[in-house]
Design brief:
The chain contains 13 helices and 40 strands. It has an eight-stranded parallel barrel, surrounded by four helices. Strands 32-21-33-39-35-36 form a six-stranded antiparallel beta sheet, with no helix packed on it. The structure holds beta-D-galactopyranose. Beta-D-galactopyranose (GAL) is lined by residues 116-119, 179-180, 215, 229, 249, 255. Residues 358-412 form the Beta-galactosidase beta-sandwich domain. This is Beta-galactosidase. Its EC number is 3.2.1.23.
Length: 732
């Protein structure tokens, strides 16, 4: 062959090789993609917390906001609802989501977990996992390891078959195993250590061609990279000298719990924490969350995590841009990118500019980038750097991409008009509610007559029986009251005591509502102690125990119990206390309305709904309501205003918009200042208001006309005041 052809062949071969054989590695400074060290800016968007119709827009906004990477957990419980049965459809179409990211020209950090925490039901584990014989979660336990390996392999193989890894030309450049194992693992001692080493070996053997991380893990075995998470990344013990510094979760805000306030994180502090991370030599950071979204259905963990997972993220729950957070961070990202070459090519030289002021200078060869920081939370500082004077606002960092001119200060907003959107104010607008023809169906309380009843001596754990197929479990028993009891002849009424491990309880005596009791976000146990109306002869006691999201964190959280586990007792009888903890109890999983599929337009059995005009004002507890509405014109996001309702669940066209609860936020809402070490408690909002009033109804779930809204109300409320509202951006 002629030499020029050999040369051409070699060039084509090399070009082809480069195109196909992309590679991701790392060194002490950064993640290295195709031979280049990169400063990578990432944001968490969980595909399960929005709809496929929203993904493209969310990802585009993330890209426009200056992000390179989208980070998502993988949610085992939605993908494998029963062992070996997989679901990757609709909101759970992981591959489609990743392709959307790829199409936008962005990378993916795939956090497989499969333990994910995330305020997600059971931390992402399927509930059936708890009932695998001999299992113990997240430790050196064969049944657990085998299930975890099975799911991890399933996901990795799916990714490989779809060519999703960067080495195959796909978007995934990084992957995570486990989550925040550090402290839990230490509590498990040697078993924890063995498990972690096993997990590290397992992922290496999977051969994905991308690096793996362990989040908040200061002793991750090689070659896994340790990462930090938190409001700051400062307490992080540095990685080994040959690994980069990665911040997998820079918390952009905080999640909310029913009964608690809404937390905000000022963007000046978030920007400060990011700049501080970069000036120390950090090279990859991820906003948790960039878009928080919605815990649709019964997906929120907890208990008591709200349906909204807004998180005060740069993109709000509905996918709209939140200003000035989004714009300020976008500017920060631009300036960090201007410094990228200097940052990845050298270590910072740190000099003191004052007692609480420092300069971090990156100056390889002809480059020079400087970060001037003022850690004083109260006072601005005048500093001199390279013979030039600079004023630094309190608790702020100025970035000088050329070591001369300040391109950005974390505490100063550039003009809002320059940020790139005309307006910054977000508000709910009332639209015509359009709800019509309200109808009502009272949940059937005659549960003892049901065929699908389990009976047992004594009290049983709730999830063991429901396997989380419903939030609701009925506990019923009866007591035969002697007609000679003094309370039947003018004496004081007896009291019923019920103790439950959570999370809410409604009590019915002889088919009549007697009262309710709720756990709180600080104390999930429930205690009911009230006088009740009994008559002579047989009385029926029915307890409806309500689960509100399974725990998602803590050592061995799979052992936490839910439901009425006692004691249950009557007080005030002539013979004193009457212990009901060990009598015969009947159990019924779920509501009658659930089994009849009332949420759909085609219920399984014919149901007689009552026209609302025939209903008295005060609604009784455990009532189903339904109405129809037409979709408002336009494309602004929609929500249901549930302020007039008590507690329950709601569905639109058969799709669950989630749990609602109009419970009021207690907290200390004293206003919030950006400067000083941030903790959620310092920035509380909404005290005295319902923690959550609006519930996202995705546009894509609606037809133009006759959309069916079904509400199951546990306590009583006024459905005629429920309305559909639009969320929009308006000018200040
Ligand atoms: C982290 C955890 C996340 C999430 C977060 C709080 O520690 O890794 O999954 O739970 O806390 O929102």
């Amino acid at each position: 062959m002629e030499s020029k052809w050999v040369l051409l062949f070699l060039m084509i071969f090399q070009l082809g090789f480069e195109i196909i054989e992309c590679s991701v590695t790392y060194d002490s400074k950064a993640i290295v993609i195709n031979g280049e060290r990169r400063i990578l800016i990432s944001g968490s968007i969980h595909y399960t917390r929005s709809t496929p119709e929203m993904w493209e827009d969310l990802v585009k906004k993330a890209k426009d906001g200056g992000l390179d990477v989208i980070d998502t957990y993988v949610f085992w419980n939605v993908h494998e609802p029963s062992p070996g049965n997989y679901n990757f459809e609709g909101r759970y179409d992981l591959v489609k989501f990743l392709k959307t990211v790829k199409k936008a020209g962005m990378y993916v950090h795939l956090r497989i977990g499969p333990y994910i925490c995330a305020e997600w039901n059971f931390g992402g584990f399927p509930v059936w996992l708890k009932y695998v014989p001999g299992i113990s979660f997240r430790t050196d336990n064969e049944p657990f390891k085998s299930a975890m390996k099975g799911f991890t392999e399933k996901i990795v193989n799916l990714m490989k078959s779809e060519k999703m890894f960067e080495s195959q030309g796909g978007p995934i450049i990084l992957s995570q195993i486990e989550n925040e194992y550090g402290s839990v693992g230490k509590a498990y001692g040697g078993a924890g250590h063995n498990y972690m080493t096993w997990a590290a070996n397992m992922v290496v053997e999977l051969g994905t061609g991308v690096p793996w991380v362990m989040c908040k893990q200061d002793d991750a075995p090689d070659p896994i990279i340790n990462t930090c998470n938190g409001f700051y990344c400062d307490e992080f013990s540095p990685n080994k000298p040959y690994k980069p510094t990665i911040w997998t979760e820079a918390w952009s805000g905080w999640f909310t719990e029913f009964g608690g306030p809404v937390y905000e994180r000022p963007v000046q502090d978030l920007a400060f924490s990011v700049a501080r991370f970069i000036q120390k030599g950090g090279s990859f950071f991820n906003y948790y969350m960039y878009h928080g979204g919605t815990n649709f259905g019964r997906s929120s963990g907890g208990p008591f995590i709200t349906t909204s997972y807004d998180y005060d993220a740069p993109l709000d729950e509905y996918g709209l841009i939140r200003q000035p957070k989004y714009g300020h961070l976008k500017e920060l990202h631009k300036v960090i990118k201007e410094c990228e070459l200097a940052l990845v090519s050298s270590d910072p030289i740190i000099t003191s500019l004052g007692s609480l002021q420092q300069a971090h200078v990156f100056s390889p060869k002809s480059q020079c980038a400087a970060f001037l920081s003022n850690y004083d939370p109260n006072n601005a500082a005048k500093v001199t750097f390279n013979n030039v004077h600079y004023t630094l606002p309190p608790w702020s960092i100025s970035i000088l991409p050329d070591c001369k001119n300040v391109a950005f200060n974390t505490a100063k907003f550039i003009k809002l008009s320059q940020i790139g959107v005309e307006s910054t104010k977000m508000e709910m607008l009332w639209s015509d509610s359009n709800m019509f023809s309200w109808e009502t169906y009272n949940e059937d309380l005659n549960i003892v007559d049901e065929s699908s009843i389990i009976t047992s001596m004594g009290l049983l754990e709730q999830i063991n029986i429901t396997r989380d197929t419903s939030d609701y479990l009925w506990y019923t028993t009866s007591v035969d009251v002697d007609s000679s009891e003094s309370f039947l002849h003018g004496g004081e009424l007896p009291k019923l005591l019920v103790q439950s491990r959570g999370h809410a309880l409604h009590v019915f005596i002889n088919g009549e509502y007697s009262g309710s009791s709720f756990g709180t976000r600080k104390h999930r146990k429930v205690m009911y102690k009230e006088k009740i109306n009994l008559h002579g002869g047989i009385n029926k006691i029915a307890l409806l125990s309500v689960a509100m999201g399974l725990p998602n964190m803590g050592g061995h959280y799979e052992t936490w119990e839910t439901g009425v586990l006692g004691p249950v007792a009557l007080y005030g009888f002539d013979k004193g206390k009457w212990d009901l903890s060990w009598v015969n109890w009947s159990y019924k999983v779920g509501l009658k309305g659930e089994s009849m599929n009332l949420i759909s337009s085609n219920p399984t059995s014919s149901v007689t709904w009552t026209q609302d005009s025939l209903i008295t004002q005060k609604q009784q507890p455990l009532t189903w309501h339904k109405a129809y509405f037409n979709a408002p014109k336009g494309d602004s996001p929609l929500a249901l205003d549930m302020n007039s309702m008590g507690k329950g669940q709601a569905w639109v066209n058969g799709q669950s918009i989630g749990r609602y609860w109009t419970t009021f936020a207690s907290g200390n809402c004293q206003g919030c200042h950006y400067a000083g070490t941030y903790r959620p408690l310092t920035c509380q909002l909404g005290c005295g208001q319902p923690t959550q009033r609006w519930y996202h109804v995705p546009r894509s779930w609606l037809k133009p006309k006759n959309n069916l809204l079904v509400i199951f109300e546990e306590l009583g409320g006024d459905p005629t005041k429920v309305s559909l509202v639009k969320r929009s951006i308006t000018s200040n």
